[in-house]
Amino acid sequence: MSEFNSSPDQKPQLDLVYGLNDRPKPVIAFLAAFQHLLAIIVPIVTPGLLICLALGVSKEDTNMILSMSLVISGIATFLQAKKVGPFGAGLLIVQGTSFNFIGPIIGIGSAMVAAGTPVESVMAAIFGVVIAGSFIEMGVSQILPWVKKLITPLVTGIVVLLIGLTLIKEGLISMGGGYQAMSDKTFANADNLIMSCTVLALIIILNRINVTWIKSSAILIALIVGYIVAGFMGHLDFSGLQEAPLVQVPTPMHFGLEFSWSLFIPMAFIYLVTSLEAIGDITATSKLSNQPVDGPKWMQRIKGGVLVNGANSFLAGIFNTFPSSVFAQNNGVIQLTGVASRYVGIWIAAMLVILGLLPAVAGVIQAVPQAVLGGAVMVMFGAVAASGINILSGIHLDRRALLIIAISLALGLGVAQVPQILEHLPELFRNIFSSGVATGGIAALILNIVLPETKK
């Protein structure tokens, strides 16, 4: 993620074949959009699939949630590219389901299920919190300078790093076969490890091949190979596909609507951080598109982009899926193709919506064994942590900053590993600090305000 105020260097960074407002011929636009689709389709559906598997959501409902992930991502991508009134950045920006919220949703959702709450009620509470939290992000879009002063790159870097580190556990569970494998005693057996390690090894190998389109599609290619390996080993389950309708009709509030304060507190904090991540990604896209990266026009793009982040998360909650955010993957594809035309974003949006309305697509994705998915999510979750490190590397790490990082990581990871430390606290505090991301993030925020900066 780039820092909020970027360098005012306006020199073109890329020799574009098609600029921001150019209209490529349909064949060229389709091919460029397809490249983006290869890079984003797996990350868009993965958060929903992991959450549904962890919480024991039925195959039919999982199919619907995955389909809506694609549809809602398509709507957001359209708004970002087209720019409708105040909504959108007017750039070739792809938006999809965010990885940032997986940890709290799985952690607190699993606790609710274990306490005897029906899965349907848990999902209703999750989507109620998704809707409520979206207003935070929409509000943030209007007061960005003030929020930037409060949540600095130091705080953002710590939170993003904690998100990645706390997700590693979920990645390892997926590599071993998931929670279902734990219950039926097949966790980390030879078949699961072969499938997951095959995918992981392929991603590493493909990323070392000096062909840009292969690198950008490495995760998808590795998952396809893993899918084939799973088929030969007899581990593909198409029961979700058999129960799927021919066309997925969007159903508002399929699970009803409830609310959970224990989930809202960590989610609210992550919404703030996701807003600031979006600023960096939008700035990077603006720079690659040879557009301003400071000044009024840039700020207008930032506000419109973050507003869509929040508004689309509101839509996601209404239509039974999870919060969305700006994806960074498309920036690599812009560099690869030299196509920064925002009209390509409309093609991408159409592809996502069409795929989402065809439940067979979600059914095929759902058939993949969790061990195959695990090999890929370990890389994705590691990439989230690496992104946090990248943010921290861009600031001056003096003794004050290192102290804040040390305490925040210690508290956040400590609570994630030993949640029993909270068992004698009042329920309100247990709810607030039950997420390692929330604990570490709140610690970083308070320390960043309380500890005076060293004078240079």
Q: How would you characterize the overall build of this protein?
A:
With 456 residues, the chain is mainly α. The chain has one domain (26-448). It is built from 20 helices and two strands. It has helices at residues 26-55, 59-82, 102-114, 119-140, 144-150, 153-175, 178-183, 190-207, 212-216, 218-232, 239-242, 261-288, 296-318, 329-337, 342-356, 359-366, 370-393, 399-417, 427-433, 436-450, and strands at 95-97, 324-326. The protein has a two-stranded antiparallel ribbon with strand order 1-2. Keywords: Cell membrane, Membrane, Transmembrane, Transmembrane helix, Transport. It holds the Pfam family Xan_ur_permease. It is a multi-pass membrane protein. It is found in: Cell membrane.
What are the SSEs and their pairings?
Layout (H helix, E strand, L loop, with lengths): L25 H30 L3 H24 L12 E3 L4 H13 L4 H22 L3 H7 L2 H23 L2 H6 L6 H18 L4 H5 L1 H15 L6 H4 L18 H28 L7 H23 L5 E3 L2 H9 L4 H15 L2 H8 L3 H24 L5 H19 L9 H7 L2 H15 L6
Antiparallel strand pairs: 1-2
Keywords: Cell membrane, Membrane, Transmembrane, Transmembrane helix, Transport
Membrane topology: Multi-pass membrane protein
InterPro entries: NCS2, UacT-like, Xan_ur_permease
